[in-house]
Design goal:
Elements lengths: L12 H14 L12 H8 L3 H14 L2 E4 L3 E4 L5 H18 L4 H10 L2
Antiparallel strand pairs: 1-2
């Protein structure tokens, strides 16, 4: 899993990690039942504290995207919550739009104009 963090992103690191994992699941990088690398490995690869990664994983578990299985580690839930994936993409879009000076209402107008 190739995750990257944006040090200029104002969001807390655990939210960035959770968002990156949501995207990987949503885009098919991980399929239901696939096992994620251990939190320590993810933390080492990202250069952050393992507790930060664990917090992100717990948040995703609470959203129904991941499952914690004793002896098997962390796996993608059999039916990841689609709404959670869409919400993350919407948050990412809002963040990107803000960088270009667009607000929430501007995005709503753009979406209404789409076919």
């Amino acid at each position: 899993m190739l995750l990257t963090l944006d040090l200029n992103d104002p969001r807390p690191l655990h939210e960035q990690v959770a968002g990156a994992i949501r995207r990987a699941v949503g885009e098919g990088g991980y399929r239901p039942g696939d096992r994620l690398p251990p939190a320590r490995e993810l933390a080492a690869a990202l250069g952050i504290n393992a507790n930060t990664v664990l917090r992100a994983l717990r948040d995703l578990r609470d959203e129904g995207i991941l499952e914690f299985r004793r002896g098997r580690g962390v796996t993608v839930a059999e039916r990841p919550a689609g709404r959670a994936l869409i919400e993350q993409r919407a948050r990412d879009l809002l963040d990107e739009a803000a960088r270009y000076g667009y607000g929430r209402d501007d995005l709503i107008d753009i979406l209404k104009e789409l076919p």
